[in-house]
Amino acid sequence: MSDRFQRIQMLAGTGRLDLAERDLRQMLAEEPRDGLAHAFLAMVLISDESRWDEAMREAKTAIGVEPDMAITHYALALCYLARNRYAEAEASVIESLRLDPYDPDAHATLSRAHLGRSNYAEALAAAEQGLAVDPEHTECGNLRSIMLERLGRGEEAIASSRANLARDPDNAMSHAAHGWTLLNNGRHQEAQVAFREALRLDPHDEMARQGLIRAMNNRSFVFRLIHRFYVAMSRLNSRAAFGLIFGAWVLMQVLSSVAGRVPILAPLIFPLLVVYVLFVVLTWIANPLFNTVLRFHPFGQHLLSRTERWASNLMAPALALAVFGLAWGWWMDSFMLGVLAGAYWIGVAIMVAAAFSMPTGQRRLLVGGAGVLVACVPIYGVVQSVLAPSFDPLFGSFQAYGYSLLAIQIGSQFVAAQPVRR
User: Fold this and answer.
1) DSSP E strands, 269-400
2) Considering its fold, how many domains does the chain have in total?
């Protein structure tokens, strides 16, 4: 590689991307068919989200000029990866590795593409192939730690992340990866230290910010239970996770039926049903609920993003009104109306959590809009009951409300799971 490219690599590596771009454009003015320069320019432009289209064009031009040069396909893979187009990124980086199988950066990119599609075993294999080429490659080492944790090999993951930190103690991603391996293995206090160090090295590290929020929320025993459930479910494939949830739901339906037919068993079954429902609701609202508590922490309050604060702003009043509704029903000696009022506002809290768990503003509007319509169902039931007058429309509307909440939750999970193609 010429001195000019070495200088460009140095400029890009130290964050002086404007100077790197200037040099590359000067090179392309002298030789427009320089495939290596086009590939480097694509990789420089990727750092600016508003110029991703331009970066993609440069990468494709590079391949057009130098189709047998590995780095041109590698640059295109990075462009696809930035846009969460994992299948296309995988195809491009595999072509790059076919031309140059000894590039650890390309192996790391392949690992990331597999990770984006939740193919953890394949992602681990790619990271280990990169480490076989360069045993001290930081990104491959960090990805290996993350994949080991995803595959449930907790102690190996922690040992791997400690080894990465020993090699590169000033790498923010190494500290963040170490934090997640600790957190997902039940060591939330040590995880906080790792995430704080990652944020000290890189205050904009989103992986460390999210990790520190989870680690601080893990101070609560209830949240720790929920977090363990999240971790266990995230390690299952989608079919197994759905089967487990559906199986639990069917079991609760059977127990409910048994309680109706054998009244003597009702006192034993009813507490199980209540615990099941409370646990399910908590898994839906745990993050915004405990983020609300975090807002009273002198350090934790600064970790939340604007979106997370809005979720908290809407969640807290909904839950407060649920408690008020239950208390009002008890005070008025009308248990059923109190339960209905409490259930309504808990339902609103569930819909707030579902809307703000969406990864984009457009999806938040979609789920939020559906939530507003669902929230109107019980209000319609109240009006019909007053006009009738009869309680039947009210009870019927709350039954529809419950099924609609379940539909919104399932639908929002499906929508949230779809990759954000940018």
Assistant:
1) none
2) 2
